[in-house]
Amino acid sequence: MDGIGRGWAWCDLGVGSLRVPPTGLVLGGVVSVQFGGALAATLIQRVGAPGTVGLRLAMALPVLLLIARPSLWRRSRRDLGAVVAFGIVLGLMNLCFYLSLERLPLGVAVTIEFIGPLGLAAAMSRRRKDLVAVLAAAVGVVLVNGHELGQVDWLGVGFAAAAGALWAGYILLSAETGRRFAQLDGLALAMVVAAAITVPIGLATAGAAELLHPRILLAGLAIALLSSVLPYSLETLALRNMRPAVFGILMSVEPAVGAIAGFVVLHQRLGAIQLLGMVCVVGASIAITRTRQSEAPDI
């Protein structure tokens, strides 16, 4: 079976006879992570971006370790290197994205962040139609920042763009880790590395007393489940049966979902030009996804 065929195979979730196509796993993760991001934006106002990221990963870590129960027994240096690299990228990606949420609306930050998987899709695609769609999505990324130059928060844009570059690395390293480790073992081990990076920074900036407040802990647990445990687990499972380029294109629906989450949870309204930009991004995603699905062989 070739790469496209594997991209549309069904995934066994290990829960009875429940089997879900990888596209369903990815889209489920998108909805979860965007509403988790909207909830995180409310917490950032109190404990800051580093504190929110550190709390989120610290609370997600024991859940993943309990579920996966990973082992380092008989692991090669390459296996460990892949996990460490994955964890570093994972931690920095989240930190940069949350720093962008301090300065930008959720939908705008997510759209800028998509530069990462957009660039990955462009680099890996060999089809002219795919490249045209990627260019259309690039236009959408520009339109979503349709403000006067003096009103653009360039620091926020920079953090979102850095998160996007790290997101591209996350896609590749997640796939590599998924091939080397069974189930969610690699993800759980990578989360240890990510937490080791972000938790000390969060404690230093927000303070232990603030982060250990019962309401903060409860919010952190909800964010951990929505933004880490559920989406990362679904994405890791999906990437075992999906080409990274296809995954990157599917994830382009995130700006639209982020805009919806920002409106519902944070009451953030975007202008017509920004919404037009999101339509370009999502339209490109649908065009490429439908093309690949129609060409996928029966399995």
TrEMBL record:
It comes from the Bacteria. The chain crosses the membrane at residues 25-44, 50-68, 80-100, 106-124, 131-148, 154-175, 187-209, 215-234, 246-266, 272-289. It is a multi-pass membrane protein. It is found in: Cell membrane. Its main location: membrane. Pfam families: EamA. One of its GO terms (cellular component) is plasma membrane. Residues 155-289 form the EamA domain. PANTHER family: INNER MEMBRANE PROTEIN YTFF, OS03G0707200 PROTEIN-RELATED. Belongs to the EamA transporter family. This is Inner membrane transporter RhtA. It comes from Kribbella amoyensis.
